[in-house]
Automatic annotation (TrEMBL):
<feature type="domain" description="Thiamine pyrophosphate enzyme TPP-binding">
    <location>
        <begin position="497"/>
        <end position="616"/>
    </location>
</feature>
<dbReference type="InterPro" id="IPR004433">
    <property type="entry name" value="MenaQ_synth_MenD"/>
</dbReference>
<keyword id="KW-1133">Transmembrane helix</keyword>
<dbReference type="InterPro" id="IPR032264">
    <property type="entry name" value="MenD_middle"/>
</dbReference>
<keyword id="KW-0808">Transferase</keyword>
<keyword id="KW-0786">Thiamine pyrophosphate</keyword>
<keyword id="KW-0464">Manganese</keyword>
<dbReference type="InterPro" id="IPR011766">
    <property type="entry name" value="TPP_enzyme_TPP-bd"/>
</dbReference>
<keyword id="KW-0472">Membrane</keyword>
<dbReference type="GO" id="GO:0046872">
    <property type="term" value="F:metal ion binding"/>
</dbReference>
<keyword id="KW-0812">Transmembrane</keyword>
<protein>
    <recommendedName>
        <fullName>2-succinyl-5-enolpyruvyl-6-hydroxy-3-cyclohexene-1-carboxylic-acid synthase</fullName>
    </recommendedName>
</protein>
<dbReference type="InterPro" id="IPR029035">
    <property type="entry name" value="DHS-like_NAD/FAD-binding_dom"/>
</dbReference>
<dbReference type="GO" id="GO:0030976">
    <property type="term" value="F:thiamine pyrophosphate binding"/>
</dbReference>
<feature type="domain" description="Menaquinone biosynthesis protein MenD middle">
    <location>
        <begin position="215"/>
        <end position="446"/>
    </location>
</feature>
<dbReference type="InterPro" id="IPR029061">
    <property type="entry name" value="THDP-binding"/>
</dbReference>
<feature type="domain" description="Thiamine pyrophosphate enzyme N-terminal TPP-binding">
    <location>
        <begin position="37"/>
        <end position="149"/>
    </location>
</feature>
Length: 870
């Protein structure tokens, strides 16, 4: 067995004839300092601590040399102890094993403080070995000597200061101390431990005699490759009598839930993710997933999500809560939170508004994680908790609660996607929306604080992937998910780049890191870590450069503070060149300003075997404006959806299913009407003297006897004809019988396309526009007839009273020609409103689409200005 080139012991001591192990050590260790350092490093390696982060310094020379020359260790160095320590934290986050940080004495020790705070708050195991001056040099003005005893206070789980190396102290003390320190660091609550190591000179390998009696009792240890002290932790199953009654109370609370909500916070272990998924499937509750759960980012196979059919994920609760109506609706009576920390402030406020309710917090760590003081039950083991609940019967209740949330989430998803994709410019939400396209299931992602992690939590989109091993499958033990890392312990902006690089080393995956420009500038020394020759996969680092701290533009302070003060003391605006920083460190740099540039850069980076910094050009003002636009339109969509859903009567008898209507049959008939002039959609080559409008009338009957009608009128501009259209109608008559219609179909915004695909197997692009229009009109009219309402009241949730009493008799909209003067058009429109028309269609030669609200006679009338090219 090799301890280091300077300290070697054989597994079989007989190889050395009559030379015992103590005599062998005497030959290889020149002084007591190197003996102690070698023993410390060897015990670390036996405990599985193989990654050493070494800061340059003289006092730590024995430790640095022992670590760097050990045959099983991987070592990295950095000129900045702050970057180095955050790198160690990142390694711990990615690997779930402690890294070892070695520093010299003095302020080098203090430079580790921010990283130790993060490790403590995030329960990241870490071993810190700080070299120190001996006692006789303390408090006497000696160079580089400060008080390092309990230097990190309560932010470390354990502190121990070795005596100065001496052959009068048993070497067993070194081994047992290291064993205990690592045990504390890796036991719940995990975290950093600090061992202070004072050394007297010589700090190099200069010979200095020492007594071999200090190695007494190490014969067995030397003959094996195991730690000196073993620590065993006995896990008590949840069916033990002393916990059975407590868990029975928790189970009873869950079984009595009417509006249960499962919230997945920061979950770091794959087994814990698997347990949470099985619990979600078993409970059948809506599941709110935080970006740190690893399940907010999901990839699917062939556009079909097996898991989404089993687990109802609510990805956009943050933006659902922009609507006051949704806030009032979100009154869960039982909440189970798996994992710590919630990124969204709006969700946290919603959880507090649900109180008093039963709030069950389940996490592997012992900390409270109860900032709102609403936790009523605390369970400290995710896997055992899930196993216990899985063995019990939990009734599926609150189907309306599930379906409402499912519909709202779908509406929010469509609205957010529409706004983000329709915006031509490259926006920061677009980066979050498309980031999943750049990674695969074997990749990981690390988000910086401030805006990057918040944008990802709000706007990330899940995408399908043709991949033989599904990202998440409940039908097998395999559970692949997108591993997500961040520094949310203290949520600082320091050390994020270094943490991300350490995270890539620890998880051994290709990592994409998304950072803000201020965070990037705060840790530019971390760029030097990219050039270190350590085993890891290439990284892609996205730097969102809005030339300042954009998050402050979204906070109340921005509305009440002068711009010059904001720029100087909040935004900290800058013109630092990210490109020049990358060039200085020899790191590839790409700057993007358009959506296409970003897609190309991400695709190129994904295919190349080099690190790359992609700088996304943005601005504080544009970012604040677009975020405001997203919130505005999502709020409107949620208000509309809630108003519409609240108007739909859902009998208690269908709570065990999601179906409200069922199609009985569909029929169609041909019509032909002569016109006095050619229709505007006719071909310019049409020289006929007689003009007709011809098509089909669809009659769609529901099983409750309600009938809806729709018109299918093929248009030449869509390259349709009666023969082709009738073929599709004939197909529909044979397939639509028995098809179900969910109660929220009238909300539109893409729901009809989804219904066509999932219920009829018809892709949206394969159905003729006129057939889709007629079928959609027939379905909506049938729903209106079933509800005893008008089509307008089905589509528009507000109750509108129009002049006259014949509103329900008006089956078509009015069409106005825009050639007349505006005053004449307005007069005609007013007359049509008095007649009871609810919608007016206005042709406009300016080739633009306008949507306005027209108020007349105290009534709200939707006037659609529809462009048609002639």
């Amino acid at each position: 067995m090799r301890l280091s080139p300077s300290l070697t012991i054989a597994n079989d001591m007989s190889h050395y004839n009559n030379l015992n192990e103590v005599e062998y050590l005497m030959q290889k260790c020149d002084n007591i300092n190197f003996l102690w350092a070698s023993l410390i490093i060897e015990e670390c390696s036996r405990l599985g601590l193989m990654y050493f982060c070494i800061a340059p310094g003289s006092r730590s020379s024995p430790l640095a040399i022992a670590a760097s020359t050990h045959p099983t260790t991987t070592c990295i160095s950095c000129i900045d102890e702050r970057s180095l320590s955050f790198h160690a934290v990142g390694y711990g986050k990615g690997s779930h094993r402690p890294a070892v940080v070695i520093t010299s004495s003095g302020t080098a020790v203090s430079n580790l403080y921010p990283a130790i705070v993060e490790a403590s708050q995030e329960f990241v195991p870490l071993l810190v070995l700080t070299a120190d001056r001996p006692p006789e040099l303390q408090d006497v003005g000696a160079n580089q000597a400060i008080n390092q005893v309990n230097h990190y206070g309560r932010f470390v789980r354990h502190f121990f200061s070795f005596p100065t190396p001496s052959d009068e102290v048993s070497a067993r003390m070194l081994l047992t101390t290291v064993d205990y320190a690592v045990h504390i660091a890796t036991s719940s609550p995990c975290g950093p431990v600090h061992i202070n190591c004072p050394f007297r000179e010589p700090l190099d390998s200069s010979p200095k005699p020492w007594e071999r009696s200090c190695l007494s009792g190490l014969n067995v240890w030397m003959s094996m490759a195991k730690p000196f002290t073993y620590y065993f932790q006995v896990q008590h199953p949840f069916d033990c009598s002393y916990v059975d009654s407590d868990m029975a109370e928790v189970l009873q609370v869950i079984q009595m839930a009417k509006k249960g909500l499962l919230l997945l916070g920061a979950i770091h272990g794959e087994d814990d993710v698997w347990a949470a998924l099985l619990l979600a499937k078993h409970l059948s509750w809506p599941v709110v997933v935080d970006i740190l759960s690893g399940l907010r980012l999901r990839k699917y196979i062939d556009h079909i999500s097996e898991i989404d059919n089993e687990v109802l994920f609510i990805d956009h609760l943050d933006h659902l809560l922009l609507s006051d109506s949704v806030k009032d609706f979100m009154q869960a009576d039982v909440i189970i939170q798996i994992g710590s920390r919630i990124t969204s402030k709006r969700i946290s406020e919603m959880l507090e508004s649900c109180f008093p309710c039963s709030y069950i917090m389940v996490d592997k760590q012992q900390s409270r994680h109860d900032p709102m003081h609403i936790v009523t039950h605390r369970v400290q083991n995710i896997i055992h908790f899930s196993n216990y609940i899985l063995k019990a019967f939990v009734p599926h209740t609150g189907n309306q609660w599930r379906r409402f949330l499912q519909t709202l989430n779908t509406m929010a998803d469509w609205e957010i996607s529409l706004q983000i994709t329709s915006e031509n410019s490259l926006t920061e939400p677009y980066v979050a929306h498309t980031i999943l396209d750049a990674i695969c299931c074997e990749s990981a992602i690390f988000f910086g604080n401030s805006m990057p992690i918040r944008d990802a939590d709000m706007y990330a989109r899940n995408t399908p992937e043709n991949y033989h091993n599904l990202a998440i499958k409940l039908g097998s033990r395999s559970c692949h998910y997108i591993q997500v890392g961040s520094n949310r312990g203290a949520s600082g902006i320091d050390g994020l780049l270094s943490t991300a690089i350490g995270y890539a080393v620890g998880c051994n995956k290709r990592v994409i890191s998304v950072l803000g420009d201020v965070s990037f500038l705060h840790d530019t020394n971390g760029l030097s870590l990219l050039r270190k020759q350590i085993p890891r996969k290439p990284m892609t680092i996205l730097v969102i450069n809005n030339h300042g701290g954009a998050i402050f533009s979204l906070l109340p302070v921005a509305a009440n503070t002068e711009r010059n003060i904001l720029d100087q003391y909040f935004y900290t605006c800058h013109d630092v060149s990210v490109q020049n920083l990358c060039v200085a460190h020899g790191v590839k740099h790409v700057r993007v300003s358009t959506k296409m540039d970003l897609r190309d850069a991400l695709l190129t980076s994904k295919s190349q075997n080099v690190d790359c910094v992609i700088e996304v050009n943005s601005s504080i003002e544009d970012n604040a404006h677009f975020h405001s636009t997203l919130r505005k339109f999502t709020r409107q969509a949620m208000n509309h959806a809630m108003d519409s859903l609240s108007r739909i009567s859902i009998p208690d008898s269908i709570f065990n299913g999601s179906v409200l209507y069922e199609v009985g049959k569909m029929e169609y008939s041909l019509y032909r009407v002569q016109l006095c002039s050619p229709p505007t959609s006719a071909s310019a080559n049409n020289k006929s003297s007689a003009f007709f409008r011809e098509g089909f009338i669809i009659s769609l009957s529901l099983t409750d006897g309600s009938i809806g009608f729709g018109e299918v009128a093929p248009l030449e501009i869509h390259k349709e004809n009666l023969f082709d259209v009738e073929e599709q109608l004939l197909f529909l008559t044979h397939t639509i019988g028995g098809v179900t219609i969910k109660q929220f179909l009238p909300l539109l915004n893409g729901l009809f396309s989804s219904w066509l695909w999932h219920n009829l197997g018809i892709p949206t692009g394969s159905i003729f526009p006129s057939v889709r229009c007629g079928l959609e009109m027939a379905v909506l009219n049938a729903i209106a007839a079933s509800e005893g309402s008008s089509l307008l009241n089905i589509l528009c949730p507000q109750t509108v009273e129009f002049p006259g009493s014949s509103l329900l008799d008006v089956r078509i909209c009015a069409l106005l020609d825009s050639n007349a003067p505006p005053e004449e058009i307005a007069s005609i429109a007013a007359d049509l409103v008095n007649e009871g028309f609810a919608a007016l269609k206005l042709k406009e030669r300016l080739f633009i689409y306008l949507f306005i609200y027209f108020f007349y006679c105290h009534s709200k009338v939707i006037v659609t200005l529809l462009q048609q090219r002639k």
